[in-house]
Protein: MFS transporter
Amino acid sequence: MSSHGTASRTVLTDLDQRSPTSFYWSLTLLATIGGFLFGYDTANIGSALNFIPYQMSGFVLGYLVAGTSVGAAVGAILAGPLTDRFGRKSLLIVDAGIYAVGALLAAFAVNVAILIVARTLIGLAIGADSAIATAYIAEYAPRHRRGSLSLLQQWMITVGILVSYLIALVVLKAMPGQAYHTDWRLMFGLGAVPAVVGLVLRAKMPESPRWLLRNGRYDKARDALALLGVDATDEQIRDSARTLAEQERAAAGKGRFANWGPGVRRALFVVVVFFVFQQITGINVPLYYGPHLLAPLFAGGSGDKVTAAVSAVEVTTIMTAVNVAATYLAFRYIDRIGRRPIAIGGYIGMVVAMLIAAGGLVALSGTARIVVVMVGLCLFIASFAVGVGGTGWLLQGEVFPTAVRGRAASIGATADWLANFALVLVFPAWLAGIGLAWVLVCFAALAVLAIVFVATCVPETKGLSVEEIIHKFARRT
Structure:
């Protein structure tokens, strides 16, 4: 190997072996503002749903909750080729603008049709962001902290969910008489505030250094690497680009779809199936439908829908706080424990939790029933947050080569959102057909299948560079 090859490897190795500075964490928080909006805009429907004054059939109700998922699936699949062509940064900026427009449109909706359009529009931004953010982070994150940095996306999602419910509580308690008029509009409209902040600040982000190298933008790549603490000469930058291309060719197949070689296809299969299990095991049911499901448990004989709904929102806020705390544990330990063990442990906890909640619904009543159901749901959310929620997004960002990372990640995100949409859409009819307890038992059975899948199909990737991960998938085909 020439000295050029050694130099080029040194530049990329230096990037992979850096200790994250405050700039890395600031950049990652900026990249994950979309995660906050993702959480806020998908969860606020749970608080507002009981107060939207428009007539809705069961199907329309399901679509209103799941409409963001439809837009997210479209946004994810569109974002892939666009971000591979135009870069990660530009798409992240556009996403923030779409978030803002969708939030304001929902706040000023005059009928359910406009509200559904607004939710679908927000979904476009959510889907695009979910396809891009972790890919962007993976392309600059040091290999030994890539898990923690990438899981900030999931943590910000949980914070967004929590903030959406806290805002709902403040609004409903401050103006209980406006629940069917101003309150639900405020819940939607306030989402535009962080979106505008993200729109402004994301314009100051550096582009992904690996994307710049892959696309021959050497001056900008040198500047981006310098911001990340890696100083390199023009010669080293060009050698880095050549080495990156050689590594991708070595893992690629032949012919028209050379970049989609056996290793990439296997990685895509793992990510897609992981995402499907992530959704169909039921996590978004308590987060999306929580207040709507729990309100009857608090209503008693009072008949006061606003009071019951506020109580249910309070309880759901507790569940989302558990989500935030548990995701922080995943953030702390994902790079120590590894992707496979933490995912398997998460799914085991979900199985136990769903059976506890189902048992409480069937065997108990009154306060005991509420307590046991809450314990089960909180354990379920905590298990998901620690082992499953962030792991899928981390794998999506780290297992694909730079040449197709955007497109491959978008396919994974699209699968995630289609599974999300299908589950949330059919849940009202499923609930009416067999009852919540048996729905929870079904989720537990699906989580058992997920354990088998992770144990047999998901390789461990902790501590590897993204290029090494690609070769690991290629060797297993």
